[in-house]
TrEMBL record, chain A:
This is Putative ArsR family transcriptional regulator. It comes from Flavihumibacter petaseus NBRC 106054. Signal peptide: none annotated. GO terms for molecular function: DNA-binding transcription factor activity. InterPro entries: ArsR-like_HTH, HTH_ArsR_DNA-bd_dom, WH-like_DNA-bd_sf, WH_DNA-bd_sf. Residues 1-95 form the HTH arsR-type domain.
From TrEMBL, chain B:
Residues 25-159 form the Activator of Hsp90 ATPase homologue 1/2-like C-terminal domain. InterPro entries: ASHA1/2-like_C, START-like_dom_sf. Pfam families: AHSA1. This is Activator of Hsp90 ATPase homologue 1/2-like C-terminal domain-containing protein. Belongs to the AHA1 family.
Length: 116, 162
């Protein structure tokens, strides 16, 4: 039995070359040759990265005449922000209570001083 | 409520660490006390809708701690660790282990650094290093099991999608 490779937005952006490819074609769709021309690594390697990006849903390939253009789909990146949301909520809840507590510590400190 | 104390969470994909950074309207001596005095810790560290109980809590160099979060259904989640270093009022380095893991050994190394800022304010930087990327990602996911976020199914699917 083979284990399927992980194919989601986190896998897509885990690699620095893939992040650079996304940054590059986010400005305007480009064909594979033009993308490969921007990097110092081989065309097959770039092709493999693009394949992963399409499998992760971050890039779609559009045929225009004889050219195939790579275009970024940014919606899946929202999942990256969503992913941290539970942790953010946990700490916001904690720090909200801590703010309150620190405020009370001020108050009790002042009260002690007044009593003296 | 608008607060100027914005929180930053940094967790890059594929890494074993995460950072939580937050500013407070109090000098670091006071924030350090709130982080290390069990009578104060119990007032803020518990997640929403959970009761926090301290078994023991000695936040001094070489000390140890254990506490329990209990949800409204009576499910108890225990956590424990040892304190590597507690230097008032600047730094606490401790281990952290969730007792609900299937086996032992998933230990986190937590460092909290307290820095003073102008106008009686301060900043806390918590740096957590996990044993593996899976441990870190699993911990972030576990927040959802505790019901802290609605509509988590989508995210669950996403993270399980391997």
């Amino acid at each position: 039995m083979t284990v399927a490779a992980r194919r989601d937005v986190f896998q897509a952006i885990a690699d620095p070359t893939r992040r650079n490819i996304i940054g590059l074609i986010a400005k305007k769709p480009m064909n594979l040759n033009s993308i490969a021309g921007e990097f110092d690594i081989s065309r097959p390697a770039i092709s493999q990265h693009i394949k992963i990006l399409t499998e992760c849903g971050l890039v779609i390939i559009r045929q225009e005449g004889r050219e195939r253009y790579c275009e970024v789909q940014l919606e899946p990146l929202g999942a990256v922000a969503d992913w941290l949301e539970p942790l953010r909520e946990l700490w916001e809840h904690r720090f909200g209570k801590l703010d309150h507590l620190l405020g009370n510590m001020h108050a009790s400190y002042k009260n002690k001083k007044k009593k003296k | 409520m608008i607060t100027k104390n914005q929180m930053q969470i940094k967790a890059e994909p594929g890494r074993q660490e995460l950072f939580v950074v937050r500013e407070f309207d109090a000098p670091r001596e006071k924030v350090y006390r709130a982080f290390t005095d069990p009578k104060l810790v119990v007032q803020w560290l518990g997640p929403k809708n959970m009761t926090m109980t301290i078994d023991y809590y000695d936040c001094t160099t070489g000390g140890k701690y254990r506490y329990i979060h209990t949800d409204p259904n009576g499910n108890a989640y225990g956590f424990n660790g040892v304190v590597h270093e507690a230097t008032e009022p600047e730094r606490v380095i401790q281990t952290f282990e969730f007792e609900g893991m299937p086996e032992r050994g998933h230990v986190v190394l937590d460092s909290a650094v307290f820095d003073d800022l102008p106008d009686g304010r301060s900043k806390v930087t918590i740096h957590s290093v996990y044993g593996s990327v899976a441990d870190r990602d699993g911990m972030i996911q576990s927040g959802m099991e505790h019901g802290m976020r609605e509509g988590f199914d989508r995210l669950d699917d996403l993270l399980d999608n391997q």
